[in-house]
What we know:
Layout lengths: L1 H40 L3 H12 L6 H6 L2 H9 L2 E3 L23 H7 L8 E8 L2 E8 L5 E5 L12 H7 L4 E4 L17 E3 L2 E4 L11 E7 L4 E7 L1 H6 L2 E6 L3 E4 L2 E2 L1 E3 L8 E7 L4 E6 L10 H10 L2 E7 L7 E3 L2 E2 L5 H5 L7 E5 L2
Antiparallel strand pairs: 1-13, 2-3, 3-15, 4-19, 5-17, 5-19, 6-7, 6-10, 8-9, 8-10, 11-12, 11-16, 14-15, 14-16, 17-18
Amino acid sequence: xxxxxxxxxxxxxxxxxxxxxxxxxxxxxxxxxxxxxxxxxxxxxxxxxxxxxxxxxxxxxxxxxxxxxxxxxxxxxxxxxxxxxxxxxxxxxxxxxxxxxxxxxxxxxxxxxxxxxxxxxxxxxxxxxxxxxxxxxxxxxxxxxxxxxxxxxxxxxxxxxxxxxxxxxxxxxxxxxxxxxxxxxxxxxxxxxxxxxxxxxxxxxxxxxxxxxxxxxxxxxxxxxxxxxxxxxxxxxxxxxxxxxxxxxxxxxxxxxxxxxxxxxxxxxxxxxxxxxxxxxxxxxxxxxxxxxxxxxxxxxxxxxxxxxxxxxxxxxxxxxxxxxxxxxxxxxxxxxxxxxxxxxxxxxxxxxx
Length: 354
């Protein structure tokens, strides 16, 4: 009888412990839910705008905005956060290539950028902070050595290549990802927009005519100048002496003029950019972030590039695609799955090819 009584008491005690654990879990979940709703519907418009714009500018995470807000509210928030596209081409006559070290510098940023590392006259890696995010800025001293890199083939049912793989195949020293691609969640080998290599259009979007299809083209000329062309055809880009080019944006700085940004249209995210100073020094910028939770805004990118003297600059594909490779190693810290696999599959990029 004593044994049976003891077992019953033990059983009741275990049931009480399980009930207590469940109760605690539900209380914690309730508290989290209350906090989330308080934040999302409270007086902090900045947090609300940041959350919605960040989620809505991804393909995979738009559902996160729709959990808390109606389509009408999302549209209202998005309409209050936008940028005005720069409809102006880069004037290459303003770029006079002279990337030598100087005796006098305009500011500490120019000095940091132009002062070479001992024994390395090709490039310099500068590690910095952009807001609270880690960032990686590479100065390239011979812009003629910057080329477009791309996957072996387009539209064959694959997933492109990692930047590290492309960089190795091109014998690159520093490489970054470039333009966008048709994204089915895993990626694809179908570029979005033109791809130009060695003065030839090697990809035009399916169904488009290369003589009439227009887009914003980021290109590099034979003499190493970053040519940004607004609303141009591929053939116009080649006539403008673009050797290598691809489509993406927005243009962040054109002829020294910064993109006009209202609010925070794309939220914070891992970012990539390519830029050039008036003296010809080319810059690759990678800003880290954790899978659309943090990183940098477009304003942050513009501000950072201007500090280092960018005269022309364009935004590249960011988020999970963000990849910077230096000497065969991953330099930046891509988000989530991309970090584990040492970069996402992409279709194009830019590389320093000695």
